[in-house]
Amino acid sequence: MASVGFENVRKTFGAAVAVENLDLAIEEGEFVSLLGPSGCGKTTTLRMLAGLEYPTGGRIRIGGRVVNDVPPAKRDIAMVFQSYALYPHMTVAENIAYPLRKRGVRKRERGPLVRRTAELLQLEALLDRKPRQLSGGQQQRVALGRALIREPEVFLLDEPLSNLDAKLRAHMRAELIQLHQRIGKTTVYVTHDQLEAMTMSTRIAVMQAGVLQQFAPPADIYHSPANLFVAGFIGTPSMTLIEGEATSDGNQAVLVASALRIPIPAPAGGGRSRAVTLGVRPEDVVVGSGPIEARVKIVEPTGHETIVLLEIGPATVTARVGDGTPLRPGESVRLSFRTEKLHLFDSETGRRLEVEHPLRLETPRPASARA
Amino acid sequence: MKPASFPRQLLLNVAAWAVVLAVIFPLVWMVVTSVKPQAELFRIPPSFLPDAITFEHYWRLLAETPFLTYFRNSLVLAVSTTVLVIVVATLGAYSLVRFSYPGRETLAQLVLFTYLLPSVVLIIPLYLMMVSVGLANTIASLVVAYTTFALPYALWLLRSFMAGIPEDLESAALVDGASRIGAFWDVIFPQALPGIISTALFTFILAWNEYLYALVLVNSDQARPLTTGVMNMLITSFNIEWSLLMAASVMMSLPLIVIFTFLQGYLTSGFGAGGVKG
Fold it and tell me: What chain A residue is nearest to B193 in terms of C-alpha separation?
């Protein structure tokens, strides 16, 4: 096991900057996801860690050792590729045994190790097949087996589940969590799927345009996003963002946006008014009563809950309501926000604003309890 | 598919066989002529099947003429050219596909540019160059000459083959503990093998059948390949030794037929299919 560190790492391809000043300290045994939209630099970051790309600047450490100039073979890592990259001309057994063969493990000793790995991944019956004779899920397991057999210091996974169908993906996600719990090796996992990142990781590194946005446990990422990008990127449906002016109305801070006046927690240290962006998670909208008047725009029942898009003045708010709330498009409803759960961001910098202890004027109850 | 009606099927079959016959007739005639006794050759009307079969022409060719020397020269020439071209083209194509360096694309296009010049233009300069480096009249001079025009084509052919091999395969091998050369040998080479084999066949046939350069660059019996050797020995201004010529032609064709039969499987098999998902 080993820790992984990026120190001020930078990578450019010609004039294009892929990764900018990345600082990341991953501890031993952690499961860290690199999460972000396509082209955010997450795969480049992983490939630099693998040694398949060399950083333009900065230092990369594995287990304390600087590996900038160490070729992939000498880094004691294993990687699962999005395409699986199984060797087409080798059988499953030969594919899994390849890393051992390259490290000079004798044929006699390879056999039992291959069988044990195959057992772990339920591949025993497939050992003599060629990759093209396998289903997507089986190929995926072979790729995992090839990574597991050597027991490397660090596991790197590059969107390993993205080529599987939804059901198999959920299954493999659970298997990967279990696998990590069992072997406890440091794992770096690249994904654009926030569900994968949220469910599997001990910490998530959210990246955008080559820049690290936030590096924190999943709950922190969700409950206190560091900036507007993370706030908008994490959560399905996404957080509603309303731009306005934060001022004070007696002893209650309010956000003023056109005719709207929304009670908000007071930004820390701010007496004067300033431009802020308010973030509201769909589950923090209370539909049914409150000071704000809204018009129902779209109703999307999903079964156990319903997603409602509501128009309030200049903004559209997404709300998550219980299934028992009957709403029709065009209808007028009243709503309020759970003030203590609101997020505030500086509109200029996009950074999260810390708030003073919110004034608990009203403690809202869940929407379903009201109905 | 619905089976075609009987008359239609018959017509198609007749047409197909007509084409086949037209194509193989000269080959059959060559074989037949080579085993006919001399007396039967110019009989009118000609007999299709020989009355008597004789192998005397083959025997005479092997025993009384330098045919075997020419054959050996051709074999050495074709094999050396093929090996040289394949080694250089495989590594060169790999470099053009995988490594990035300034002028890579220009280099690739420049290689093709050499193809624009007609070979006749290059013969005299090449001959003078061979003389000045002391290679005139040797098999080696032909190996070099053939390489100059087989290599560009081979490079382009292999380049497109290599470009089709997913980079992930090689990255995986590197991460799994292979060196660059190790990854090339374990992963790229087996994947490119069908391409390498077809390129090798192309080069071999080219070197085996080439006539013009062989005629100009080599004029000693010690170094002459089959093409010019056979012409020189059997076709003179006064006489053409048809029986011997046909026997020589049959024996010249044999190596190519054997190689083709042996390698056909490689050329058609979907060797690298299904390796990567996506």
Answer: A89
